[in-house]
Amino acid sequence: MTLFLLPFLLIFSCHTNHVSSHSYNAIFSFGDSYTDTGNILVLLKNISAPTQLENYPYGETFFHHPTGRFSDGRLIIDFLAEEFSLPYLKPYLEHEGAFNQGANFAVTGASALDLSHFSKFNITGFNTSLNFQLQWFDELKHSLCKTIKECRHYFGKSLFILGEIGINDYNTLFYKGVTPAQVRPYTPKVVKTISTAIERFINQGAKTLVVPGNVPIGCLPNILTLFKSDRNDSYDPKTGCLEEYNMLSQYHNSLLREAINKIRIKYSHFYEPVFDFVKHPEHFRWNTPLRTCCGKGGHYNWNANETCVQLMQNTVRTLFQSNHQIRINNQKQNPAKITSTLKIKLLLTT
User: What is the DSSP secondary structure assignment for residue 248, as one 8-state letter?
Assistant: First the structure.
């Protein structure tokens, strides 16, 4: 997962202190491919489905073997684990070993809403929605703590990562020919599902939660490729992103912020740093922010049938989300020194 994704995170905490000044006994992560550390690989193996996740370049730069992460190295969740001196999160579905220091319930391709919400579009697949992930958490909880008091104490010293989740709800509908305007009525349902999960964790004792908002969908290479417009006014003149799709992201984030305010949890802006990367890629030692560098063909170097055919030299961290990949070349420098806005300690500030 690339470091430029770090500013995407909206940090919500019940405390006014810096999160980075805290120590945690465990991390519990929920979401999709932004945070999945191998659950999707378990599911695919269970049905003997072939997957490129078992081959390079996945996992080659850090773990030196495929791990089920949609990355050639570590994800944001891995850097957070390192920051707090905790082990890398094991995928829950492996059911191997103890999970007393945390577990990862995220699944690549997961949606916030259950698949039943999209029944009229004949959408099928693994139902690994947020509600299913919460059910897995409930299954595990009984092995972590026995009483309400004990659980509240334990989860009060844990870090909860809730997302990113929601982008697959929208992308799934886009791929079925649904326009952003037609997708918009689903957004309140998506946000309600996320905010309900937040309240659920707080009621069980959680004091620190990291809740990412939606990324600027209109800047993603797969969206730019599949929904190319002949109208110049469809694009943001400063970034080249599709404005209608980004407006949906902004709508999602505005509703999420309203929901968070009702729960009385602090909110941190993130959309501007994303656009800063797109508008000023040179600040991140990058020249083509809207093109994948691990893809093939087309204006945005993205092809659904050839998602990763060549690697870029001198790149340490890679973001793979669904069928798009974006990379930041760190020129073999310490990634933490690229820019202060990308430091985890600065990120984890409420």
Answer: H
Round to whole Å and give the CA distance between 87 and 105.
15
Token pair for residue 337? 């020194």
User: Token pair of 342, please?
Assistant: 């990308």
Give the alpha-carbon dihedral of 49, 54, 59, 60, to 10 degrees: -150
Name the phi and psi angles at 283, rounded to 5. -65, -20
CA gyration radius for the chain?
Answer: 19
Q: Quick check: 275 and 239 in contact, CB under 8 A?
A: yes
Q: What span, in angstroms and rounded, lies between the C-alpha atoms of 324 and 298?
A: 13
- Contact predicate 171/125, CB 8 Å: no
**Are 241 and 235 contacting, i.e. CB atoms less than 8 angstroms apart?**
yes
Q: How far apart are CA 224 and CA 245, in angstroms?
A: 10
State how far the Cα of 272 lies from the Cα of 40, in Å rounded to an integer.
31
The terminus-to-terminus CA distance of the chain in angstroms comes to: 23
For residues 183 and 171, what is the distance between their CA atoms, to the nearest angstrom?
9
> For residue range 60-101, what is the model confidence (pLDDT) as tens digits?
889 999 999 988 899 989 999 999 999 999 999 998 888 999
Q: What is the DSSP letter of 235?
A: B
Single-letter amino acid, residue 303? N
> Cis omega before residue 164 (within 30°)?
yes
3-state DSSP call for residue 199? helix
Work out the angle between the directed axes of helices 130-144 and 187-203 (0-180°, nearest 10). Answer: 10
Contact 248, 328 (CB under 8 A): no
How many Å apart are CA 106 and CA 76, to the nearest integer?
A: 13
pTM: 0.81
